[in-house]
Specification:
Low-confidence stretches: none
Number of domains: 1
Strand content: under 5%
Number of strands: 0
Largest sheet: none
Shape: rod-shaped
Distance between the termini: 87 Å
Length: 105
């Protein structure tokens, strides 16, 4: 399908752009990330814009979007962990308090 759509030269530029974009981000080796980046590059190539710089830019934009999504997920996980710690700390405080009994001194 792809080979019938693009000539060999464009395919080579697309592959180079994909590698450049994927190596620039930490999640670039994950299958779904590579697929997302590749689709963005293909879309740009289909529009008739096929210089390597333009294709690389399309890949880098897609990679940046993924990094932002990944970062947001990491921040959300960290916030959940912190909330869990706070809940556990409150429960621990409540369980360590006397049950309202009065003590004599």
């Amino acid at each position: 399908m792809i080979r019938e759509t693009f000539d060999a030269r464009t395919l080579a530029k697309m592959e180079a752009a994909l590698e450049r974009a994927c190596t620039a981000v930490p999640i670039g080796e994950q299958h779904e990330a590579r697929r997302h980046i590749a689709l963005s590059i293909m879309e740009r190539a289909r529009s008739g814009e096929a210089p390597i710089e333009t294709l690389t830019e399309a890949g880098q934009i897609a990679a940046s979007e993924l990094c932002i999504e990944h970062w947001n997920e990491e921040v959300a996980r960290a916030a959940k962990r912190e909330l869990r710690k706070q809940v556990v700390a409150k429960r621990t405080q409540h369980s360590n308090k006397p049950n309202g009994s009065m003590t004599r001194e």
